[in-house]
Amino acid sequence: MQQTTSHGVVTDSVRPPEFSRAERLRVLTMTAAGSVVIGYAGVAALLALVSSTAAHASFSTTGVLTAAAPGWLVAHHVPLRFDGGQLGLLPLLPTALVMLLVYRAAAAAADRLGLFEPLQARSVVFSIAGAHAVVGSLIAFLMGDEGPVRATPAVAFFGCAVVSGVAAVAGVAQRCGLVEVVFERVDPVARRGLRAGASALFALVAAGALVLALGLVFSWSTTASLFDQTGGTIGTGLGIWLLCLAYLPNAVVGALSYVVGSGFSIGSVVVTPLEFVGGPVPAVPLLAALPEEQAAYLPLVLVLPGVVGVLVGFSLRDAAETPRARVRAVLVAAVTVGVGALVLAAVAGGALGGGAFDPVTVPAGLLAVLAFGWVTAPGAVVAWFAGPRPPRVVEPEPEPEVVVDEADHDEEDYEDYDEEAEYDEDAEEVEEEFDEEEDDGIEDGEEFDHDLDEYDDLDEELAEDADPDLDDSDDSDPDSDGDPGPEDSDEAEDAEPEDLADKPR
Predict the structure, then answer these.
(1) Nearest CA among 124, 74, 86, 82 for reference residue 104
(2) d(Cα 95, Cα 348) in Å, to the nearest integer?
(3) Where is this region: Disordered (predicted)?
(4) Is the peptide bond before 359 cis (omega within 30 degrees of 0)?
């Protein structure tokens, strides 16, 4: 059957089942609590694995569950404080895994409740984000201000709410029509720009990952030696490997900043394609990809963002018919790349304990500006010239006036002239005939008046024959002056045309 959503989209689907208020509350509670419990259990299991394999670590269930609390906050990207300083450089891989867990939980709840409208997504998003925020602030409060690891309850509340809320919105966006609502308000040219921008951001991240992988391959001997320095035990090696894996997304974002040209810094060490300042770095195998000195070939990595910008322009060459509209699509793509790079750089760096390696900085503003420029400049040029151009409207040239010489008239002109003359003569003859007919009509009218006078004389003679005393009576009347009396005039007026017609003329 067809059902219409609140944003005007008609879909052919089965009507969702009706749930009572208690059933909906139960589903939402189980979803929110399940995402919190499963995430906490995953962190605890990981810590238990590391503790059980470490050489000199004591393993206990209570200790693992207690240590999992700050780990759960780290997974929600909440900074931790301790006596030596603050840990603001948080790994992105656990955060990505928690968001994936929340994404799947929100999508499953939306499918189970049969949600299909944007406003219906509020219950799922608010329940999940609220549960994570309350648990995060409660953990930060129980950790206290005198423990070895501390967290601010307010920061924990909003940090957990933002991370889980964004993931929940992504989980219900497609099912509740949020994507359609957003795209309905965007014109097709801007929509193409958004898609091209997302693809360009992914391409830049892939370029950064490629540069990082090449750096690790070229310095594999240094990477292996750093693993050997950890002691050679299984637990220690597993811990170092998990640490590198957790911070791998952070390293990719740093490589992205390096490829674009803004670079990054670790304490006093500054690494960019055009500048290198050496210094001490942590003994982490992942950092073996850093260059040891400035080389002449390092600026060649700037070709990669230029190629990405060219590809963006080439992909948008048919986004619109006019060059200006295509350039607008390129600008939308560039803004998308810039905003995405800004967010990634903001969450990839941070404080690192207040030591010699503090802070780890990825310049978010400079990265966003450079990413925007790398997409805009080559992309706009390619989109302007590679796409179709509207045809030019050529005004027709005025035809020259033809000057006709009277001496060059041919016989046809004379024939036309003779025909016009004959037509004028015929018109004059018709007018003369019409005037003669009018004159005949006037003469006929005079004859008709003459006949009527004869008819009046005949009537008088007949009247004298019928009444011979009529003349005497008229003469004897002193008031008579030869004119008919009132009665005679009335009789004459009452006479009908039919009676007059019957009488002989």
Answers:
(1) 124
(2) 11
(3) 391-505
(4) yes
